[in-house]
Amino acid sequence: MTQKSVIVAGATGYIGRAVVAAALARGYLVYAMVRCEKSAAFPEHPNLSVLQSKFSPITGWNIQLPNADAIISCLASRTGTPKDAHLVDYQMNAGLLKLMRPLIGTRFILLSAICVQKPRLAFQFEKLRFENTLHTSGQPYSIVRPTAYFKSLCGQIARIRKGKSFLCFGDGTQTACTPISERDLASYLIDCVTLPERHNKILPIGGPHPAITPVDQANLIFDAFGKTPKIKYVSPKIFDIFQAVLAPLTPFSEWARNKRELMKIGQYYATESMLVWNSDQEIYDITATPQTGSDHLGDHFTNIARGLTVHVADANTQIY
Ligand SMILES: NC(=O)c1ccc[n+]([C@@H]2O[C@H](COP(=O)([O-])OP(=O)(O)OC[C@H]3O[C@@H](n4cnc5c(N)ncnc54)[C@H](OP(=O)(O)O)[C@@H]3O)[C@@H](O)[C@H]2O)c1
To answer: Whose Cα sits closest to atom 46 in ligand 1?
Structure first.
């Protein structure tokens, strides 16, 4: 059997790093694209090459890509602001697609997001725009739209450790998701290289069922840390108030526009489920949400409480 090879763009991100590790564990040749080789700090591995590369919206990427079975793009705006989302989620990915054109048969595996199915946010429109470019490009592809990551559901651990309440929007039962670990998602993305049933498809994917609500999530954290549950309920209308306060400033101030977009993002995740949307019935549908992997969020919280897993909370990423 010939050795498989993948190029991982956005290799320094939460999912990108997991993809690099999983591909190496499977014996793949891995080319990790990074913007700064020094800060990328990957462990030495004979099958890993680091490709330092820069992108300019005018001249494109400043490298040539090696031949590979697939490119897995885990590039993502770290801020979610309209400008950055356009640059990273659309232009950089479109630049990669252009760069790989001479590579015959190389599959473009795109890390997207399940939330693009009901788009309201700038970064969702940029992702959709690139999904569409990829879909119509003639290049083999797989578009993976995952549900909520474990890291995004760990944000309140620090509060609970300090004895504070878990904060829920609404009554904490109106939204739900099937959380997926970075390890299970990385594995799913790499399987897109070889599994024909994942080729040239849009693939929503979550972690193991059942779906959990924010109240379930709170109970899992309190249980893992051996504390009595304390939940505070906050109206999601708070996001409307912040947006209304910022609105008069937005024609003059990019700062205000960016803050307003962040409020919209917060409101979106406070009110929408991360499950497949059934447009006929107008409901989020757990039965239509595919599942993969074996990592459960409750075990993840327990491992963090016992010090067995590093608690990943990415201070550089503002979106979640
Ligand atoms: N969080 C969730 O629950 C969730 C759920 C479903 C889908 N998603 C989607 O998953 C993606 C986020 O994945 P993630 O958490 O792995 O992302 P992440 O940790 O924020 O990583 C983003 C990657 O993109 C690179 N990047 C960003 N801006 C760049 C720029 N200007 N130039 C070069 N490289 C740049 C980063 O490089 P540096 O390390 O150099 O900054 C990093 O490698 C988003 O598209 C999101 O919509 C998230």
So the answer is: 113
For residue 190, the enclosing domain spans 5-151+180-205
What pLDDT was estimated at residue 318? 42
CA-based Rg of the chain, rounded to a whole angstrom?
20
Pocket flag, ligand 1, residue 306 (CB < 6 Å): no
CA distance 123 to 37: 27
Q: Is position 41 within any domain?
A: yes
Atom of ligand 1 nearest to the CA of 316: 20
Q: How far is the CA of 114 from the centre of ligand 1 (A)?
A: 15
Residues in the chain, total? 320
Q: List, for residues 43-61, the tens digit of each pLDDT value.
A: 999 999 999 999 999 999 9
Q: How far apart are CA 171 and CA 159, in angstroms?
A: 19
In a mutational test of the pocket of ligand 1, which residue from 84, 88, 92 has the highest number of ligand atoms less than 8 Å from its CB? Answer: 88
DSSP output for 107-156: EEEEE--GGGGS--SHHHHHHHHHHHHHHTS-S-EEEEEE--BGGGG-TT
The verdict on the CB of residue 12 being under 6 Å from ligand 1 is yes
| Phi, psi of 167, rounded to the nearest 5 degrees | -95, 125
Q: Is the CB of 35 under 6 A from ligand 1?
A: yes
CA atoms within 13 A on the CB side of 68: 27
Residue 261's CB: how many other CB atoms inside 10 A? 23
Flag whether 64 is in a domain.
yes
| Ligand 1 touching residue 18 (CB < 6 A) | no
What pLDDT, in 10s, does the model give residues 283-318? 999 999 999 999 999 999 999 999 988 766 544 444
Which domain CATH number covers 101? 3.40.50.720
In a domain, 269, yes or no: no
User: Does ligand 1 come within 6 angstroms of the Cβ of 78?
Assistant: yes
> Could you give the number of structural domains in the chain?
1
